[in-house]
Design goal:
Radius of gyration: 19 Å
Oligomer: single chain
Order of helices and strands: HEHEHEEEHEHEEHHEEEEHHEH
CATH class: Alpha Beta
Number of helices: 10
Shape: globular
Distance between the termini: 35 Å
Structural class: alpha/beta
Strand content: 15-25%
Mean pLDDT: 78
CATH topology: Rossmann fold
Helix content: 25-40%
Number of domains: 1
Number of strands: 13
């Protein structure tokens, strides 16, 4: 009788685990409209998506099946398709489910018209394939798409793009910061994942101070500790892994002969090496150290609740 009870209990646990959703929306844009040469194209974003898909599947975080993993690249990564993908990702999500949104591509900033960006008056935005005609996807858009997800869902958002810090929320006040020591600065030649917004988006910012359009934002060595950020956001219903701060550019460069986004490359490499038993705080520290060791001055930014930061990754 005891053996029968144990068998039933084991089957119940297996069924319960199988019932939990594990889904990922992976977006990478190398080829911006118009299709082919002519757009503000990149080279490392599609390889980033492939690496992220391999990593999630290999570690059994999200299975590589069409029902669990949606991949949008280049001309398929339109504004409408990305927003529809976010609806697919979050539909029916319940406590205990694991959801992941990864974007690799151009980022930009546009004038804030909703009034929620009280510090810099700019919305951070990601750029779909057709952003020049269909428009960008702002942090307000992403926040609305995620707003219906309950806090019990394990939702991680990874943005490997310029200005990705606070890329899912408004910046209302002073941030809580931890300051691990950083490596000595090294200047590296790379391409910035920044694109200038169309004039109807960008004109209203022309009178504002602006960061360099190309190259990596240089941070003096003595200021590096102040730039290192783990941001505690009470009540946030997701975790944001930003490839850089909201006033920095993210880099892509050739790594072993293949162009890659430096943040995604380091994130996947560290996660495969460490395994899923690592906490978010520890993973963030190791990814940041790897980026610094490669000579890049972009500073990744982890944003989450106190509890989520201390939990194991993707839980």
């Amino acid at each position: 009788m005891a053996g029968t009870w144990l068998a039933c209990e084991a089957n119940f646990l297996i069924d319960e685990e199988a019932a939990m959703l594990r889904k990922a929306l992976l977006v990478g844009v190398n080829d911006y409209a118009p299709i082919g040469p002519g757009g503000p194209d990149l080279r490392g974003c599609v390889p980033d998506v492939r690496d992220m898909a391999h990593t999630l599947n290999a570690l059994n975080i999200v299975p590589a099946t069409p029902a669990s993993m949606k991949i949008l690249t280049d001309s398929r990564a339109t504004r409408d398709n990305i927003l529809a993908g976010l609806k697919w990702l979050t539909k029916g999500a319940k406590k205990g489910d694991t959801l992941i949104f990864h974007y690799s591509g151009h980022g930009t900033q546009v004038a804030d018209i909703s009034g929620d960006e009280m510090i810099d008056h700019r919305d951070e935005a990601i750029c779909p394939h057709d952003f020049a005609t269909a428009g960008v996807i702002t942090d307000d858009d992403v926040r609305r798409a995620l707003s219906g997800v309950s806090p019990g869902v394990n939702l991680d958002v990874l943005l490997d793009s310029c200005f990705s810090g606070t890329g899912t929320r408004e910046l209302r006040g002073r941030l809580m910061v931890t300051d691990p020591e950083m490596e000595e600065e090294t200047v590296v030649m790379a391409t910035s994942r920044y694109v200038e917004p169309p004039i109807d988006y960008g004109y209203f910012l022309e009178a504002e101070p602006w960061i360099p359009k190309r190259g990596i934002m240089r941070v003096p060595t003595e200021e590096r500790a102040e730039e290192r950020r783990v941001v505690v956001v009470p009540g946030l219903n997701h975790v944001l892994w930003a490839g850089c701060r909201d006033n920095q550019t993210s880099a892509e460069s050739s790594v072993g002969g293949v162009y890659r986004g430096i943040f995604t490359y380091c994130f996947c490499r560290v996660l495969r090496r460490a395994g899923i038993g690592i906490t978010r705080r520890r993973l963030d520290a190791l990814v940041s150290a790897d980026i610094a060791a490669m000579g890049y001055s972009q500073v990744p930014q982890l944003e989450a609740t106190v509890i989520s930061i201390a939990e194991k990754v993707f839980t």
